[in-house]
Design a protein that fits this description.
Blueprint lengths: L3 H6 L1 H9 L7 H38 L4 H33 L19 E6 L12 H8 L2 E2 H8 L5 E2 L1 H20 L4 E2 L5 E2 L1 H6 L18 E2 L4 H5 L6 E3 L5 E10 L18 E11 L4 H19 L3 E5 L11 E9 L4 E10 L3 H6 L2 E3 L7 E2 L1 E9 H11 L7 E2 L13 E2 L2
Parallel strand pairs: 4-8, 7-13
Antiparallel strand pairs: 1-10, 2-3, 5-6, 8-9, 9-15, 10-11, 11-12, 12-15, 13-14, 16-17
Length: 423
């Protein structure tokens, strides 16, 4: 959500920020609604004062034996007008909130310009793609040949974009999640949380999934939503709260199933595990002091990179352009892992600084040490990592000529010392 005061102070700057997102000017429409609401509020206050004064004078007139009918008529007229104004003010306030809630965050100044992925900028690379002496296969070819990845039976159970993992691959998925959690909790100070997978409307609104992206979500018959990412549950832990400054930053992590309709992904990644309706992910969330959120963003990205480095998976870091960032983000780094079977880098993590955008929607604030005026916290989130896509990357980067998969040394303790995954 946006700060109305900042729009009043510099409407042109606000429109320029949205223009970087590919949106047309809207500040004047927002300000017109804001003016109409404030005008109604001012008139309501004036009418309230006049009605109270007239009511007081009615009592005085009756005490003196004078006629109070003109004053009673004035009170009745004020009451009728106030009812009309309250309805108008409520209607305008709802429209103002509807408009504001549909607008994305303003990009940070150092975010590159651009309207899609072609405007993203590569920051750095780590590791070299493996030099395989054979034609590399894609993960679904490897998994199906091993007899441990079954899309046909998953489709029988649930339809397209689901998978059944069996045996060593099911164990590998569980091992990856545990490995990631262990690093984030013991080395980077994140507190592990087991959050709800079903949330209400307000929780989805708080992190920006609603109202704009309702069509991308799974909703239950009782009106709850399956989380598209644990960011939703973890970030909203501080909704409607006032934190003490000394408790910041707060860092939490969770290994959960996630659910997305992928409504806009028709025809993309139809085979394999890259884009599914249900997938596992380890999420990182930080609730930070506004003065330190940039440093926290770099720290979070480094934590996600550490997972890839320990697994020996080549990757690159991309700074997303203004038009390719998520709705709530003001700045985002994407980590893209090398997939030999595709011969391409694919996203495996997005780490975003949302500034106070989500905090305003959630009403999440902190009290400074001096005790003066609460401030909104800054929220950050990142994948640390997408577990299913990490499994894909392990299969493709550690595949061997005979179709088996070498287990990365860092994961072998989580698999009882297993060194090779075979049929």
């Amino acid at each position: 959500m946006h700060d109305l005061k900042s729009i009043r102070d510099d409407a042109e700057l606000f429109d320029r920020g949205l223009a970087r997102r590919g949106l047309g000017p809207i500040a004047q429409e927002i300000l017109a609604l804001d003016t109409a609401r404030r005008t109604a509020q001012t008139e309501l206050q004036e009418l309230q004062s006049r009605r109270n004064d007239a009511s007081r004078r009615i009592g005085q007139a009756k005490a003196k034996g004078e006629s109070a009918e003109p004053l009673m008529a004035e009170v009745a007229a004020a009451k009728e007008r106030m009812g009309s104004l309250e309805a108008d003010e409520r209607r305008v306030a709802e429209e103002l909130e509807r408009r504001l809630s549909a607008l994305p965050n303003i990009p940070a100044d150092d975010v590159p310009d651009g309207l899609d992925e072609h405007g993203n900028v590569e920051i750095r690379r780590w590791g070299a793609p493996p030099d395989l002496a054979f034609r590399p296969k894609q993960h679904f070819e490897l998994g199906e040949q091993l007899g441990l990845m079954d899309f046909e039976r998953a489709a029988k159970l649930s339809g397209a974009r689901f998978v059944v993992l069996k045996g060593a691959l099911a164990r590998l998925e569980r091992a990856l999640g545990a490995f990631m959690l262990d690093i984030h909790t013991t080395e980077f100070g994140y507190t592990e949380v087991s959050p709800p997978l079903l949330v209400n409307d307000q929780t989805m609104f708080g992190t920006g999934q609603l109202p704009k992206f309702a069509e991308d979500q799974f909703r239950t018959t009782d009106g709850r939503w399956l989380i598209p990412t644990a960011e939703v549950s973890l970030t909203n832990l501080v909704a409607d709260e006032i934190l003490d400054e000394v408790t910041l930053p707060q860092r939490v992590t969770a290994f959960t199933a996630c659910f997305r309709l992928e409504a806009g992904a028709a025809g993309r990644d139809t085979r394999g595990m890259i884009r599914q309706h249900q997938f596992a992910k380890v999420e990182l969330v930080s609730i930070a002091h506004p003065d330190h959120s940039e440093a926290e963003h770099e720290r979070m990205t480094s934590a996600a990179e550490t997972i890839l480095q320990r697994l020996g998976l080549p990757y690159r870091v991309m700074k997303l352009c203004a038009g390719d960032m998520g709705f709530s983000a003001r700045k985002t780094y994407d980590l893209e892992v090398w997939l030999p079977g595709q011969g391409a880098y694919r996203e495996i993590s997005s780490c975003s600084n949302c500034g106070e955008f989500q905090a305003r929607r959630m009403k999440a604030r902190f009290r400074p040490k001096d005790g003066k005026n609460t401030r909104f916290v800054h929220t950050l989130n990142g994948s640390g990592l997408a577990v299913g896509r990490t499994l894909v990357a392990v299969l493709e980067n550690y595949q061997q000529g005979n179709g088996t998969i070498a287990v990365p040394p860092a994961l072998q303790p989580y698999l009882g010392g297993l060194e090779v995954i075979g049929a």
